[in-house]
Specification:
The complex is a heterooctamer, with four copies of chain A (about 260 residues) and four copies of chain B (about 70 residues).
Chain A lengths: L10 E3 L2 E3 L3 E4 L6 H11 L3 E8 L8 H8 L2 E4 L7 H15 L3 E4 L12 H13 L3 E6 L3 H10 L5 E2 L13 H10 L5 E2 L6 H9 L4 E4 L1 H4 L4 H19 L26
Parallel strand pairs in A: 3-4, 3-10, 4-5, 6-7, 7-8, 9-10
Antiparallel strand pairs in A: 1-2
Helix pairs in contact in A: 1-2, 1-9, 3-4, 4-5, 5-6, 7-9
Chain B lengths: L1 E3 L2 E3 L7 H7 L9 E5 L2 E3 L14 E9 L2
Parallel strand pairs in B: 1-5
Antiparallel strand pairs in B: 1-2, 3-4, 3-5
Chain lengths: ~260, ~70, ~260, ~70, ~260, ~260, ~70, ~70
């Protein structure tokens, strides 16, 4: 349907240039060590973190591990069900991590963790006005995506399927429509299960892909991180290579011209 | 008495955010920490001066694996 | 469904070890130069050629170009509609190229170029008896694939969809069943359109993928060759990484524990 | 007279395969070439000796991009 | 996934009982006569009409034909891109047709004719407050559907795919999620192409289906109307019959017990 | 893709005219009484039976019940793995039931119960020569289907997915190709799970559908029988009604001409 | 002068909606008709009395096949 | 001794198919029954005359729900 719009290999979001088109979630890894190894294997330069209450017992070294990995932080507002909570969480994240970037999540439903369109728009508007670089997690609704872009979001992050479901891209048409609807980068968020999902996302015109559980909860997270890295590259290359059209019937790859005639037995 | 991260904490009114953080073994320059009091961000620069009222709801947050 | 069975990264067919799991067709390229560049970009070590009548005018340097590329030849029997023609073509190919390897095609239908099961079995049996290393192009019927393997074929090459159709893998279930049904390598043949098709094939348990028109007739064949190479790697890695299960509902990638409570406005 | 690659060719009976190949500018050690006569392979070793009968159907094949 | 919730065969929306679970659009028919015949063939009791400027030349007898057909009118707000225009159109429709029922459409995009979530919510809220029986055309977002239901809409009408596209149900999962998310009737709106789409919608738990172009622009609209009527019935019956589970492998429908043993030849 | 070829509503196989295009399997019902009721509800006129060893204990009244139901018997060769066993079973069935009709099954794999192409062809050839009316259960391979038709089979019965799997039609393209490849009736056999599968089969050009477990093992077999009957009718009608084409974008079902202009607020 | 269904119409200010409808051959009890003036509904009961101002934007709408 | 439906049965050689069927309470005109002996169909007309040899493998089959 759509082909990737930029010809350059680098992705630019809000003026920041990323060589890797793979964003990583940090949740769900069996250990920080595996997380660090997977990040390295993935090549990702931008990883999400959440804000949660300080646990006096298990004060983690997450920040240190990520700093050592040399990646940028993308705080999220996971767990927020209202614009107000999401905005406040974004502001706290700015305080905590000295970054204006925020992966904005405003959830509307516990079972599916799907976003709540009106609250999301409200939070996005407020955060953009407050100077944030807003990357909203959104549905695969192209009209909503365009509204978010029109509000000044730096990218849109539509879901392929519910968070952690591994169902891949349930509606590829809508992703392609989103690609046509907005000028900002489109980052597939949520639902990725395996490498072919990621390749497909890139072929549909996404500029990048976010993977979390698909890597962290795989049996071999580091190997899956390598798989995802290759899949992003594969899909990106294919998107720009001008694929052959789909046909109902066959088209010979070997010409018939010059075919021998051995007669009839 | 305040509510610290959802639980009652025996902190008298008038104490500062910095004092509370110290109780959690967090120094004023702790990386990756943010504080909200009664639903408003308290910027790091005010931790030393922001005095808590009785029953203040204090949230002390930090980075966690997620997303 | 299935995970790739070998843990090693190399593929062995009939005792020959291949580092690349991508087979290339040589038909359809705009020029021999582009073909050579695409072969190099793909990393493929095994490419198909057809046998056709010598053209006194345009005597090509195909063989020379391929020799220079350092790839092994896999002659095919494209265009044959009977076991007899296919067997004779295989024997001529052995004469011409000094190889016992043959990609056996016995076509049953002009419109779809799908194989003809009974003629294919007949030809496979005769060629195996004659000492050939037989790689049959077959349907996605797992019973037929098992019969071919039982006859002594060195691999099976099921179709994803009609040759040159670019429709990808129309029936992933059958491919997974073939993977379970045979012990020899499974090489997806025919139908691949883009990188995600290739990644999916590997995830379904294929040991390798054959791409022809998908690369040669892409707008940028060299770029697509790179895409396919990365896709094979991505799919192969993912197949061995133990993907997360598919779920209907969401599974939070960020834990709720420790979520802040900002009160109600 | 024989049928060479589907077309009548003015080659008298008794000539060898090698002669026919020479007409196509193909030497006996040409790479990637194979010959069938009347539906049977003629191995390279016999090219010099294999004599064609009248109306023999000769197929001279070589590698072509395909598949 | 979901089974239809009501066991009764009749559908009740806002207190009105309908024996037919098929709603019809009146646009696109080759003639009023064919429209009337198709309505009769479909068994539908509720059909949509639009409001447009009086055309002095071609003053139609649409209202008369529909009155004679004995169907109820469901005016729509097609063509409105803002809540304000949609609300005004609804009020004019109430004046023109003496009905509080309104199929609420607030479009967000010319190319896809997909709804605009925030404007739709705004219009729905205002019309519900004004005493309308609101049936909103919405995306397949379950959170948005629940919000519309919570606002007091009498039903929700999610799309299967873009209006008139004939692409069927692009994301069956979301439709099933909507079925779980709301207590009001779910009426599939938009995208239906043929009978199996309609049967699937009912199996997914929809209470009714709206068909417009699929019938009116079919080559034989009356025959397609009959097809759709049967498809609604088929899907409704199947939804309540407790289908067998999906399995990867076979389950013999003929038992092996008692199988004869004819020996080996 | 394909539209049903006959315009008449009746199906003729080997000179026998059937008003119902639904064939029923008799296995898996909770009781003979439910079976009889389901047969009546389905409207089917042709039902399959198997041949098994006489059980002296539980000598059933199956034949009597079916005779009373007024249906014709279609004996099958379920459980046969060789042409020889299938041919012998067919001959025994002819003895037992005084019918030349045989649903020919030659199984190639225990796990999938998929047919074995070469044995199937062998058995079909022998039975056709022996005067049988052969209805072979086959794969969805169009070349194999054509070969069976060419051998003189009275119909072909391709699978949608494995017997009893309820997976529906895994490869709709192949079914459509079979429809184009043969002149005899195409009866979808195996894999049907619910009504929409049946409607889809008919839309793809099948002349009839066989349902067994989908009805007999449903929670409410009689209701599912009614659903399947309606689905056959729906799909058959739709196949002949000339459906609208599939489009990526929307096509308004309400014209924009005459749209009111309410000005800007 | 008013704007009637998007086009200038030579109707003097002060005339009623009913008069305008009569020009369109629509009687006051015409079925399936509704009228908006300057973005507001004019109920049927007011058609006879509602006087149009200069440049009033009048929309006269009726049922059309759709949806 | 014969093998009847897979199990040894104490039927002496020389008895007919009809006799065996009688043991199963099946009359010669039983509906829906067919018999194979040693992999060959025994038509109903021969049930009364077909004599079984020692160790004959007899299959007596009837209709069963299936398919």
């Amino acid at each position: 349907m759509a082909v990737a719009r930029e010809t350059g290999e680098e992705l630019t979001i809000a003026g920041r240039t990323l060589r890797s088109r793979l964003l990583l979630g940090t949740g769900g890894f069996p250990s920080l060590a595996v997380m660090a190894e997977a990040i390295a294997a993935s090549g990702s330069e931008l990883v999400t973190v959440a804000l949660r209450r300080v646990d006096p017992q298990a004060r983690g070294s997450l920040i240190d591990v990520l700093a050592e990995a040399g990646v940028e932080l993308l705080p999220n507002t996971a767990g927020c069900f209202t614009a107000r909570d999401a905005v406040l969480t974004a502001r706290l994240a700015r305080e905590a991590f000295q970054t204006d970037w925020i992966k904005l999540e405003v959830i509307g439903d516990e079972a599916t963790l799907m976003p709540d369109a009106p609250e999301l728009l409200r939070a996005a508007e407020e955060l953009v006005a407050d100077g944030f670089v807003v990357l909203p997690y959104t549905t695969d609704d192209p009209v909503l995506a365009r509204r978010l872009a029109d509000l000044g979001c730096a990218a849109v992050m539509p879901l392929g399927s519910p968070i952690g479901s591994g169902m891949g891209i349930r509606n590829p048409y809508n992703l392609a429509l989103i690609r046509e609807a907005v000028a900002v980068p489109v980052v597939l968020d949520a639902g990725v299960g395996t490498a072919s999902d990621v390749a497909l996302a890139m072929e549909l015109g996404c500029d990048a892909v976010m993977a979390a559980s698909a890597i962290s909860r795989a049996q071999d997270p580091v190997r899956m991180a390598r798989a995802m890295r290759a899949a992003v590259e594969a899909g990106r290359l294919a998107a720009g290579a001008g694929r052959i059209p789909r046909r109902t019937y066959a088209t010979a790859s070997t010409p018939e011209e010059g075919l021998a005639d051995f007669g009839v037995d | 008495m305040i509510v610290l991260n959802g639980e009652d904490a025996d902190v008298p009114a008038g104490e500062t955010v910095a004092t509370v953080l110290a109780r959690l073994d967090l120094s004023p320059d702790a990386r990756g920490v943010a504080v909200a009091v009664d639903g408003e961000v308290v910027p790091r620069a005010q931790w030393g001066s922001f005095a808590l009222v009785e029953r203040a709801r204090v949230e002390v947050l930090t980075a966690m694996q997620g997303g």
